[in-house]
Specification:
single chain, 122 residues, 2 domains, two-stranded antiparallel ribbon, 8% strand
Length: 122
């Protein structure tokens, strides 16, 4: 094999490495743009108009749009004093009811007889 062939092989490998790196960068950019498009330009424009000086009602409305979830149930905060972990879970009428609730063996998300307490609006 001639030295010219070795040089060309090295050059082609280097170019392929450059192209693979560029492909990775472009793939990440495409994924990011698709994610933003899925979120919707409405949210982007709405969040741009809300500032620190905005009224509380506007901030709450933005928060609700960004973190939309079920409006028929409401959460209760829980805290584990031993581990310091905390979070929110939907309020359940059957929670810790003896003979009905399977806690702590059955997680609320897996419970077949959960009965959410409904958030009633005016």
């Amino acid at each position: 094999m001639a030295a010219h062939d070795d040089k060309e092989i090295a050059s082609l490998r280097a170019r392929l490495n450059e192209l693979e790196a560029e492909r990775g960068t472009l793939s990440e950019r495409l994924e990011r743009l698709q994610s933003q498009a899925a979120t919707g330009s409405v949210l982007n424009s709405a969040s741009a108009s809300v500032t620190g000086e905005s009224r509380a009602a506007e901030k709450i409305a933005l928060f609700r749009r960004l973190f939309a979830g079920r409006t028929d149930v409401f959460p209760l905060r829980w805290e584990n004093r031993n581990t310091g972990k905390s979070g929110y879970a939907p309020a359940c009428a059957n929670e810790w009811v003896r003979g009905v609730c399977g806690k702590p063996q059955v997680k609320c998300g897996d419970c077949p007889i959960r009965r959410f307490l409904l958030y009633l609006t005016k």
